[in-house]
Specification:
The protein is an alpha/beta fold. The chain has 2 domains: 2-156 and 347-364, Rossmann fold (3-Layer(aba) Sandwich); 167-345, Glycogen Phosphorylase B (Rossmann fold). Helix content is 42%, strand content 16%. It has 15 helices and 13 strands. The strands form 2 sheets. Strands 3-2-1-4-5-6-7 form a 7-stranded parallel β-sheet, sandwiched between helices. The chain starts with a strand and ends with a helix.
């Protein structure tokens, strides 16, 4: 197949899709306004950078994209993100177009103004078909459009050959709790920090001083809250057990996950469409704790692979952390259950094959 993506080259999600498709022998093209970041795009992918930047580029690059598509003649156009690139895609009007929704484009964007809601609805209606990475986001998208064809769910899974448990990376003398995420308010990292403080205090109050002394907190990522979160660890006097790494390339994420004993994702907003980081952690046999937002509960079997807690509730996070910290057997059991669950539901190879089938079905409609 000749597949053209209209998407941001700076996102790991885009990079993974284009690289996977070219790896499977397809002729892959990427049209973008965003420069690649830390994650490398396969050299076999044909990349075209549009002359005008967002936000006006979503409107003014129309003729350039049409010219490129006329030149490329793809079997299908896969546009990623229903607001920005979705607007450009609607104006280009290529057939067939698969529009992949991501999260904030359907959870946040339409509620910012009546105009933005109208734009989103137009963009969704213009697509030949819509794809969502989770059932929760599929339902959210259906609030704005009643498509002729059902929205297809195409999970963004995990490469089990890259994400797997490595005991050699763990320090057996400590118990490390952590997260790999952007340090922004909506991801609730401060609730994790507060929970670790509460956990440490509870262990000390229960005379479990040895366990308390083993606690470590690892926060991988960067963002606008970096300084604020560092200050919070100092205020709570847990800065001596906390490490902030800053941003890391996606290829290094498995190494950081394998330093952890427990993974925690305390996101606060429903725009968490799909828990990629969580299934990556589960693939590395880590027990996980997530908040009850968006598509996160979909990727956790509560009480089997981890726990689902109330959003913005540091006390509940601390309670579940306590259960896992004092019981190494439960940590191991949840971890093994998690990898088995990911293997059955979110194997990246199977997810890519599913997307290929969606492409094929749309191409047959031409």
């Amino acid at each position: 197949m000749k597949i053209c993506f209209l998407a941001g080259a700076s996102s790991i999600h885009t990079v993974r899709w284009v690289n996977a498709m070219v790896e499977r022998g397809h002729d892959v093209h990427l049209i973008t306004m965003h420069r690649p970041d830390k994650d490398k795009i396969d050299d076999r992918v044909n990349v075209y950078f549009l002359p005008l930047n967002p936000p006006m580029g979503y409107y003014l690059n129309v003729f350039k994209v049409r010219k490129l598509l006329k030149q490329i003649k793809p079997d299908i156009l896969n546009t990623h993100y229903a607001s920005g690139y979705g607007t450009l895609s609607r104006l280009v009007n290529y057939y067939p177009t698969l529009l992949s929704v991501w999260g904030s484009d359907v959870y946040d964007f339409p509620y910012e103004s009546k105009l933005k809601k109208k734009i989103l609805i137009k963009n969704l209606k213009a697509a030949t078909r819509i794809a969502s990475t989770s059932f929760a986001m599929k339902e959210q998208t259906e609030r704005f459009v009643n498509p002729a064809m059902p929205i297809v769910v195409t999970p963004f899974g995990v490469d089990l050959n890259k994400f797997y448990p490595r005991k050699d990376l763990k320090d057996p003398n400590v118990i490390t709790i952590g997260i790999v995420k952007k340090l922004e308010e909506k991801y609730g990292v401060r609730y994790l920090i507060e929970a670790v403080y509460l956990l440490k205090r509870k262990l000390e109050e229960n005379n479990q001083h040895e366990l308390a002394s083993k606690l470590r907190l690892l926060i991988v990522g960067e963002g606008s809250q970096f300084d604020e979160l560092v200050a919070l660890t100092k205020k709570l006097k847990i800065d001596n057990i906390t490490t902030f790494t800053g941003s890391v390339p996606h290829d290094e994420v498995p190494n950081y996950l394998n330093k952890l004993d427990i993974y925690c994702a305390p996101s606060t907003l429903d725009s968490e469409s799909f828990g990629v980081a969580i299934i990556e952690a589960s693939a590395c046999e880590l027990p996980v704790i997530v908040s009850d937002v968006g598509g996160l509960p979909e990727v956790v079997k509560n009480g089997e692979t981890g726990y689902v807690v109330q959003r913005k509730n540091a006390n509940q996070i601390a309670e579940k952390l306590y259960e896992l910290v004092i019981d190494s057997e439960k940590r191991n059991e949840f971890g093994k259950n998690g990898r088995n669950y990911v293997r059955s539901m979110y194997n990246w190879e199977e997810n890519v094959e599913r997307m290929e089938k969606v492409y094929e079905d749309l191409i047959k409609m031409k």
